[in-house]
Amino acid sequence: MTTDFLDILRGGLTPAYDRGIERLAVPLVPHVDGTLHARYSFRSYLDHYGRLPDSPRYLLTPRRETTEPLVVRVSFTRKPGAAEEHVDVRIPAGWPAGTSLAVELPGRAAELGHQVTLTRVQPLAPASQSAADWEVTALLGNLVKLLWAIGRDYEELTRQLGDVAAQRFARSAHGASLDLLGEDLGALRFPPRPYDWDDLTVALYHLDDRPAREQSPVAPGPEPEVRQVIDSGVQFGAAGHPGTNAGARSGRTGRFSAAFEFAGPGSITIDDSPDFDVGPDASLTVEAVIRPDRLTARTGAVMAKCTLLSSAGTPGWSLTVGRFRDIAHNVRLSVCDGGPATELFADRDLGDGAFHHIAGVVERLPRPAGQPSGPRPAVVRLHLDGIEVTRQRLDRLGALSNDVPVVLGLGRESPAGTSPDAQYAGLLEEVRISRTARTSFEPVTGEGDDHYRTRLALFQRWLVPTPDALRAALNETGPIGGREAPFDVVEATNQPVTGTLALRVLPLPLTQGQSVAADGDQRVGEAEAVGTPEDEPDFDPAWLCREESSGSPDFGTSEDNRLMQLGISLTLADLVKRLHDEPGTLHVRRSYDRNAPDLHRVGRALLLGHDTLTAGELGVLAHAAGFGWVQHTRDGLVHVAQPPGPAFRIDTSAIFRCDRATPSPSACIPTRPSTRGPRSTGPSPAPARVTPR
Q1: 680 pLDDT exceeds 50?
Q2: pLDDT at position 689 over 50
Q3: Is the C or the N end of the chain the one with fewer CB within 10 Å?
Q4: How confident is the model at residue 4 (pLDDT cuts 50, 70, 90)?
Q5: By the 8 A CB rule, do 655 and 672 touch?
Q6: E-strand spans in 39-152?
Q7: Residues 6+ apart with CB under 8 A from 523
Q8: Beta-carbon neighbour count of residue 172 at 10 Å?
Q9: Mean pLDDT, all residues of the chain
Q10: Are 102 and 6 in contact (CB under 8 A)?
């Protein structure tokens, strides 16, 4: 929490609580030794209250937000003249500016009285060395300590609530919350995959090797076994560092493909090479995917390049699984430059039957000012499943090089002066050694939140799929191989095949008095939809068609019911087809009527009925057949009409014969007269039989 919060709380207290709320800002003064010396005393407190504070506690506050994990070393003495001790305050990445952390001095609370004095503050690289970027506060009263603890918990709860609310948005969600958002968008997180080669890799062993047919079936074991383990770098032109298998079993089911199993005495030995040297300025990352045998509790070396595991005096490094710090199947990272060994522990039992990624990292830091030569400072980190679990900063770390081989699955432990074999038991795959301090372990650990969040942004918007828009969206993921726009979209220029299909929506059965025009408009009248008899001032009944049907439809006894214009006749034929599967008969109650005042006078209207269909249903079918205007009459019949149209058509499907009495073969008549329009004579492209005169 911020110290300003303490000022707010103090404003609500009475003067009786002044002593309990007292605190002191500790001035920090730069010194020639590169540290910030604390210059303070409790004289003013003593003068005001007549006594010294009982047990001061100290806060460290960065005045700038941290972008990476930092360590600040705080030195102190327990009493005047005592040896100086120090404690490291670790500041997480992203820690807000102005938010204080407790300086947790070691020892019992009763031993930490007013004689404990802070002497120096040393921000370790890459932290800022400026006194203006750091603030130290001494909490002198018990009440102010209590209020700070309460305020810290309050701010933590507020932060957690804000983080929970932020899980609704992909830009701020993380972990499982981001996975759920991806499921909603139909874009799942990429699963873990094996490593690919890059230029910073020294050696990469997928350990998915299978025995070749030409290898002997007698070594090592009764079945054919892999003798030489391949370094995948040879496939990319790198110098290969093959391993020699002695007792490990290949072809076991691994996390990605096959894996090697160490179920008894076995190891994979990789000969020493200058490529494996780790000089005083070189960084290092060693990693593997493991599944320890849950029934085996002994110490086993996963991978090591040292004479003895975790021993001082000889340079080297190792990753070991065993019972450490009372935790079975715990992971230990050991590095040594010939002096004291540095050990880091994951403090987690990996004997849960699952595959885990472990990585040890040595990162060299810039040499401090005033140190022109010699070993550089370094940070040693231990990662588990892609997450940093612990780190330790070393003021000086020399070379880790030696001339012993890299061994997978076997090492030499040295308890109590002995050197028993440290045989690893379990599965092993994806072993990688790199000449850099890696911070990300994708894709072996799966797709990270940052990459997944960037990819989800492509699915959270509407995008017109033009080549330019697709190219811009794909290249938003960032540069690859140094290219700012690594993706291009090549679209063929062939004309796309397109088509249309007209859909017609029919109305519900017409109610009495309801009408509908050809375009579906139910508000227009007959005259507006199909016209009036006056639109055909030159009408001649000779142009009417006569329907010859003796079945359906039924025209009754009136001859005029069979007479109608061509447009009505053709649409009536379509209606008859639509009624083919319907039981009952279509009846034409009225057609041509020379004395009618409406369209019956010109043969462009019919009055219809049906034995089984209601007038409303028949009206919908008549509308679908193509009549220009349909009405359900108040008499329970259907009135249909058509607009003016052609009076006749030419039918070329008939077979013509030639009449000998005609002066010319062109005077031909149809052998089967058409019922669609008046008969005509004349030349036709239809087949004809011609008899010479």
Answers
A1: no
A2: no
A3: C
A4: low
A5: yes
A6: 57-62, 70-77, 85-91, 101-102, 117-123, 134-139
A7: none
A8: 14
A9: 86
A10: no
CA dihedral sign, ordered 145, 148, 154, 157: negative
| CATH of segment(s) 23-140 | 2.60.120
Q: What is the pLDDT of residue 555?
A: 92
Whole-angstrom Cα distance, residue 158 to residue 137?
A: 23
Helix 449-456 and helix 176-185: axis angle, to 10°? 20
Report the C-alpha dihedral over residues 310, 315, 320, 325, rounded to 10 degrees. Answer: 30
Q: Which amino acid is at 95?
A: W
Residue-level pLDDT at 672: 34
| Count of helices and strands (H, E) across the chain | 9, 37
CA atoms of 36 and 119, how far apart (whole Å)? 9
Tokens encoding 17: 């609580």
Asked whether the beta carbons of 432 and 204 are under 8 A apart, the reply is yes
Three-state DSSP state, 639: strand
* Rounded Cα–Cα distance for residues 319 and 308 (Å): 12
Q: Out of 2.30.36.70, 2.60.120.200, 2.60.120.920, 3.40.50.620, which CATH number does the structure's domain 201-434 have?
A: 2.60.120.200
Model confidence pLDDT, tens digit, residues 453-481: 988 888 888 878 888 888 888 888 777 77
515-641: what fold?
Answer: Muramoyl-pentapeptide Carboxypeptidase; domain 2 (3.30.1380)
pLDDT at 418: 53
Say how far apart CA 104 and CA 637 lie, in whole Å.
99
**Residues ≥6 apart with Cβ < 8 Å to 105:** 58, 76, 87, 112, 116
Query: What does the domain layout of the chain look like in residue ranges?
Result: 23-140, 201-434, 461-493, 515-641
